[in-house]
Amino acid sequence: xxxxxxxxxxxxxxxxxxxxxxxxxxxxxxxxxxxxxxxxxxxxxxxxxxxxxxxxxxxxxxxxxxxxxxxxxxxxxxxxxxxxxxxxxxxxxxxxxxxxxxxxxxxxxxxxxxxxxxxxxxxxxxxxxxxxxxxxxxxxxxxxxxxxxxxxxxxxxxxxxxxxxxxxxxxxxxxxxxxxxxxxxxxxxxxxxxxxxxxxxxxxxxxxxxxxxxxxxxxxxxxxxxxxxxxxxxxxxxxxxxxxxxxxxxxxxxxxxxxxxxxxxxxxxxxxxxxxxxxxxxxxxxxxxxxxxxxxxxxxxxxxxxxxxxxxxxxxxxxxxxxxxxxxxxxxxxxxxxxxxxxxxx
Length: 346
Prior knowledge:
Helix content is 38%, strand content 21%. The chain is of the alpha+beta class. The protein has helices at residues 3-21, 70-79, 95-104, 146-157, 166-173, 177-189, 206-220, 222-225, 252-260, 277-282, 314-324, 327-340; strands at residues 24-29, 46-53, 56-64, 86-90, 107-110, 115-119, 122-126, 193-196, 200-203, 226-231, 249-251, 268-272, 286-287, 293-297.
């Protein structure tokens, strides 16, 4: 994204909030796009604004995120634990997302005048403003459609997989052969895949690719593999359950709790193979929309034996924790990224 685009979004948001509130709002520092001369990428998309009312002033650091979703909001919260001095700036913020950010204590302004800002003597909470212009649809692209998300997940979890045949990749990702061809072609066009006589195929910018996958997963893929919500008879059933005997794997909070013992899961997340009937019967689960057990279908075919037994790949645990959005899960996701995920990005 060009610096001019970040600047345009910030300037539009500042003007919109100024019009909606009558407060004096101004940009103190525009965001930048590229790394600095020393190669430091910190601060990309970041700037600073000032709000004034009479002689009183409030200043906020801001980060421009053009297409904000709950996962990206989680990343923002994770990167800025002291959120009192930070706000996120985006294009149109719908009511549901505005409410979610407000619950998480994430301040924001958008290009239509929706805003949540707090300071000593300042409380600004505006939501429900409609888009003033037709918003262009986000172009997700073929690689990030549901079937392509299967392929990207396999590529992230299995570094070097791109060097294998399309047929092998299709089998391990659980997709049709044509999907692999279209996904890799799309990744090449987006700059995530290099291909040449000397290097063969090589996935690059792996961490950026992963972050895009994590941001899109809750909307594009997770709802498609959701099988239902259930209640267990015993709140601690997960401590002794051996779900791997039925080919199931723990995800989310439960995966982390099984591995470290440092987190008591509020929701038990399980990925089963195929229909979960046998699993439901063995563990006497009862269908309940408010239950504490969520069942999903495993959407990959490769064997996973690089972590604790009965646990999904760490990148998926991370995605589940961010999608949840709760403060303790965001902190757990941060720790997981720092300790377990680096090897997937090399």
